[in-house]
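Annotated sample (chain length 130).
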Amino acid sequence: QFLYFIVNYMRRTLFALMGPVETTIRGKLQAAFNPKVLEVRNESSMHNVPPGSETHFKVVVVSNEFESVKLIDRHRKVNELLKEELDGPVHALSIVAKTENQWAASNTVHPSPSCAGGDGKAKEKAAAQG
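Output written by the structure step:
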């Protein structure tokens, strides 16, 4: 019973730290794909947005629901599922969608690149100014 209390306390604490968009994305992906691995990373802080924003996400979804589904169709399924968020507050979504066998063979998730600004020239502009 103590372990049950600790697990539920940790779950409540984790959800309190996540914003509403991140929580919604996690819930939708969990319900649709019953994933073995699910990561929802809010990468908004890597971009030129106000603190606490929920605009840029990376999702890692490992599910046998993707078995025999082409990679482009896996991405389409995730994008369709999150259409409301993508039409609203979410500006960018990076997707890693693998089967359990693919994940067992390679569970590396590469970090997202630093923000290059809206025109892709933020580094050049910063160098010119400084």
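Annotation: The radius of gyration is 17 Å.
Annotation: Confidence is low (pLDDT under 50) at residues 11-17.
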